[in-house]
Amino acid sequence: MIVLRDGDVTAPSSMPSVVAIGVFDGLHLGHQKVIAKVRELAHDLGAVATVVTFDPHPAWVLAPERAPLLLGTLDQRLEGFEALGIERVRIVHFDHELASESAVGFIERVLVGELRAVRIVVGRDFRFGRDRQGDVALLEDEGARSGFKLFSAPIYGAATRWSSTVVRQALRDGDLELANATLGRPFTLRGTVIHGDARGGELGYPTANLDLGEHQLVPQTAVYAGAARVAGSWWPAAISVGTRPQFHEDGALLVEVHVAGFEGDLYAQQLDVAFIARLRDEMTFAGVPELVAQIELDVEKTVDIFKKFSPESSALLE
């Protein structure tokens, strides 16, 4: 997959493109439907299946006080595009200068000028350009003038609309089942292992403390059964999202991962941690022995739940 950033494009594309436009945070099932349409049209037209996405998320530039926490990193998004069969991604750096560009100017500069778009695929409520002037109607008008056609994707979903907003709220509410059903796979945090206070090791269950990406959303405080990818292999992982009230009255929120069965040093490694099932609320216990007994039960349940997990269940597949 070809990834183009600002400054990488020196001449118009030599091939026509079918282009989807959006942030695509989380790459949920609705996003996957849009991308499947891009691939279908690109195949039929002999064009390049292309995505235009934005980084950082526009809301963090325009209204940081109301901006949503993110469901994944840019690298996770790019890996998802590739897994879904996208051939080219144009990453547009979003800043105030870009926000001041007219919708028509963006169409002429990027979609037509750089990518030679012959089809554009967007959701029917998509907005872009200065003062959010760009919409489906404007794209249709500009397409008639510039030579591309528009596919306005319907609202996808079953009982609940598939959207990043639904996933975020479900994770905040602790409804992991709804979040994963909307994503079409387990919600997965990516972070780098950093040093903690080694409390888990003292209890007999060493944990990897995750340093997460900027503006990263984490699920509601709880203990979860999951899976951790270490150097390309998946392991059962008991995950604690919480403040460790057993030891701290006002502790910082931490994501701690016990990788069951793994022996080795995880420090400074990048981990993908997939959340499969919620086990219980964060709790305090009468004493450390009671806490250790509960951790033992949590790990046993995690190992059992992991038996039904497969790497494919965490991938972006149609």
DSSP summary: helix tally: 10
Query: What is the molecular shape?
Result: elongated
Distance between the termini: 18 Å
Strand fraction equals 25-35%
CATH top level label of the largest domain? Alpha Beta
Q: What order do the SSEs take from the amino end to the carboxyl end, as H and E?
A: EEHEHHEHHEHEHHEHEEEEEH
| Number of extended strands | 12
By CATH's scheme, which homologous superfamily of the largest domain applies?
HUPs
Report the uncertain regions.
none
Here the CATH topology of the largest domain equals Rossmann fold
Q: Can you tell me the CATH architecture of the largest domain?
A: 3-Layer(aba) Sandwich
Structural category: alpha/beta
Q: In what order do the strands lie side by side in the largest sheet?
A: 1-4-3-2-5-6
Biggest sheet character: 6 strands, parallel
* Domain count: 2
Considering DSSP H and I runs of 4 or more, what fraction of the residues is helical?
25-40%
